[in-house]
Design a protein that fits this description.
Length: 63
């Protein structure tokens, strides 16, 4: 398992909390808080793009 440095959990109103993490290799990780052993990983840039798109409302149709 990679050495992941997790940020504090992010929790939206009445929904699941998730955590974002990074490692020394330049990879980014995202997981449901409390389930960090079942994460998704990609580059930091890909995660940054995902977060920007979510904030811009591009994923609202999925909710």
């Amino acid at each position: 398992m990679p050495d992941i440095v997790w940020e504090d959990p992010y929790c939206a109103e009445s929904s699941n909390c998730f955590r974002v993490g990074t490692d020394a290799e330049g990879n980014a990780y995202i997981a449901v808080a409390g389930q960090e052993d079942a994460y998704l990983t990609d580059t930091r840039e890909a995660l940054r793009t995902l977060i920007r798109d979510i904030k811009a409302g591009k994923a609202d149709h999925l909710l």
